[in-house]
């Protein structure tokens, strides 16, 4: 049986600074194809990191299988540890990719700034050593300088890019999952993270704060433009509104674009019409009068 799709897609109460930029940057910036991909990549990579962290948490009970194998056989293939390690490693690389996409946007907007290189590593170094031209915004400098975890994430990402998989082990006393990779060297010592889930969550929070600070500033410099926004798909039809760039944005923002047709088709009336202020702002459609021809 085929049923008509019904889904609300406009949910600005869940929007962060990155979402606002994604929706409204077009009125101010003309990015290249790679730049447009970077705009999407900022959130996509960050969401992947969150998803992978959650997957790793779900995989935690599997580590007991390796422990049981070791206790009963005296050895273990550590397959579950390797799987867990592979997933947690991708959390780090996805977080870095989100920052890398952010850097591409920054260097595209401020490409005329002296000594601003098209490299994430070099941009962070130039900011922290105060090498950039005076036209580079202090707000972005402050956001980058406050990311004191960046060098650690950079080192982990660099080493993981071409390495094999590390190992994880559960501390029976604390319950923490340690991650180690003796093939990776950080400042000359093997990479060991005593509580990898805790550290990954801390890095997620750090990256989230960086993105919020960067895009909050970038949003403050966007032109006040309107966009056409899909509200949702109800009864198998798409419902639209015009949405101005006016903070705060909520579900009542903008003006309904679909009222002019669904007012005359009662079977398709928007399910939010009675409570939506965007609907109320739209000009009501005059009723259609049937005339008898004699």
UniProtKB/TrEMBL annotation:
Which organism's genome codes for this protein? Pseudomonas arsenicoxydans
**Protein name stated in the entry:** Uncharacterized protein
């Amino acid at each position: 049986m085929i049923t008509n799709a019904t889904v609300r897609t406009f949910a600005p109460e869940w929007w962060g600074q990155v979402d606002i930029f994604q929706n409204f940057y077009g009125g101010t910036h003309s990015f290249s194809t790679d730049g447009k991909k970077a705009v999407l990549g900022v959130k996509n990579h960050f969401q992947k990191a969150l998803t992978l962290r959650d997957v790793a948490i779900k995989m935690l009970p599997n580590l007991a299988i390796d422990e049981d194998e070791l206790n009963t056989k005296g050895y273990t293939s550590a397959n579950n540890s390797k799987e867990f390690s592979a997933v947690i490693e991708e959390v780090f690389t996805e977080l870095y990719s989100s920052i890398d996409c952010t850097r591409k946007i920054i260097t595209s907007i401020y490409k005329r700034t002296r000594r601003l290189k098209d490299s994430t590593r070099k941009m962070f170094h130039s900011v922290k050593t105060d090498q950039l031209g005076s036209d580079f915004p202090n707000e972005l400098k402050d956001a980058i300088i406050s990311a004191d975890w960046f060098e650690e994430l950079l080192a982990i990402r660099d080493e993981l890019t071409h390495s094999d998989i590390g190992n994880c082990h559960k501390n029976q006393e604390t319950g923490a999952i340690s991650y180690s990779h003796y093939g990776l060297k950080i400042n000359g010592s093997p990479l060991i993270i005593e509580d990898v889930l805790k550290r990954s969550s801390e890095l997620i929070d750090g990256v989230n704060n960086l993105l919020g600070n960067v895009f909050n500033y970038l949003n403050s410099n966007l032109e006040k433009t309107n966009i056409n926004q899909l509200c949702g798909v109800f009864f198998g039809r798409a419902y639209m509104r015009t949405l101005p760039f006016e903070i705060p944005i909520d579900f009542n923002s903008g003006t309904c674009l679909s009222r002019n047709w669904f007012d005359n088709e009662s079977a398709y009336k928007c399910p939010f019409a009675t409570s939506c202020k965007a609907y109320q702002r739209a000009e009501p459609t005059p009723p259609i009068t049937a005339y008898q021809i004699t």
